[in-house]
Amino acid sequence: MKIGVLALQGAFLEHKQKLSEINIESFEIRNKKDLQQDMQGIILPGGESTAIGKLLKDLNMFDSLKGLISDGLPAFGTCAGLILLAKKIEGCENSHLGLMDITAKRNAYGRQLGSFYTESEFEGIGKIPMTFIRAPYISKVGPKTNILSVVNNKIVAAKEDNMLVTSFHPEITSSNSVHNYFIQNFCKS
Ligand SMILES: NC(=O)CC[C@H](N)C(=O)O
């Protein structure tokens, strides 16, 4: 089992650390060639979705990444990663990869007071710690999307086919449970 972590910008090292804590091998994806490596899943980290989206295009990785995920490669997007996967972004004409039938609202908690910590229920896991940093939430889901967590009446985690997204950052909390959930439920060795 080997997981690729998109490492163009943002919190990719924290994801690698979490994976190593649960004994899962990972590698950084920095260019198109890295996408050809054998992997059983990919993590799209948090950071700045506009910057990551632009780098994917500039580095000519966009179509290969989109193709891999639409062909079934398990993908876990956190925060900016959620925005990259969303079919629609509120207030924007364009999406990025546009593969998951959700609408993302960016910077949904305000810019200044946008970071907070809470503990809340996640379906199939139980109560877990959640850290939100200038986070999006999911304002709409499609018929095939399963909602996994709701905080303050906002959807903050969901899954659809081979894709899992959280608007919070599980990689910077004390728990390994969401990474374990991704590996156990989505990735086949
Ligand atoms: N922590 C994050 O990933 C923030 C996401 C950021 N607000 C964006 O739109 O990309």
Secondary structure elements and their pairing?
Elements: E1 2-6, H1 12-21, E2 25-29, E3 41-44, H2 49-58, H3 62-70, E4 75-78, H4 80-85, E5 86-89, E6 100-105, E7 116-122, E8 126-132, E9 137-141, E10 146-151, E11 154-160, E12 163-166, H5 177-186
Parallel strand pairs: 1-2, 1-3, 3-4, 4-12, 5-6
Antiparallel strand pairs: 6-9, 7-8, 10-11, 11-12
The structure holds glutamine (GLN).
Give a structural overview.
The protein has 189 residues and is of the alpha/beta class. The chain has one domain (2-186): Class I glutamine amidotransferase (GATase) domain (Rossmann fold). The protein is 24% helix and 34% strand. It contains five helices and twelve strands. It has helices spanning 12-21, 49-58, 62-70, 80-85, 177-186; strands at residues 2-6, 25-29, 41-44, 75-78, 86-89, 100-105, 116-122, 126-132, 137-141, 146-151, 154-160, 163-166. The chain has a seven-stranded mixed beta sheet with strand order 2-1-3-4-12-11-10. A three-stranded mixed beta sheet has the order 5-6-9. Strands 7-8 form a two-stranded antiparallel ribbon. Strand 1 (2-6), helix 1 and strand 2 (25-29) form a beta-alpha-beta unit. The protein is globular, with a radius of gyration of 15 Å. Residues 46-49, 79-80, 83, 106-107, 133-134 line the site of glutamine (GLN). Keywords: Glutamine amidotransferase, Hydrolase, Lyase, Pyridoxal phosphate. It catalyses: L-glutamine + H2O = L-glutamate + NH4(+); aldehydo-D-ribose 5-phosphate + D-glyceraldehyde 3-phosphate + L-glutamine = pyridoxal 5'-phosphate + L-glutamate + phosphate + 3 H2O + H(+). InterPro entries: Class_I_gatase-like (IPR029062), PdxT/SNO (IPR002161), PdxT/SNO_CS (IPR021196). Belongs to the glutaminase PdxT/SNO family. One of its GO terms (molecular function) is pyridoxal 5'-phosphate synthase (glutamine hydrolysing) activity.
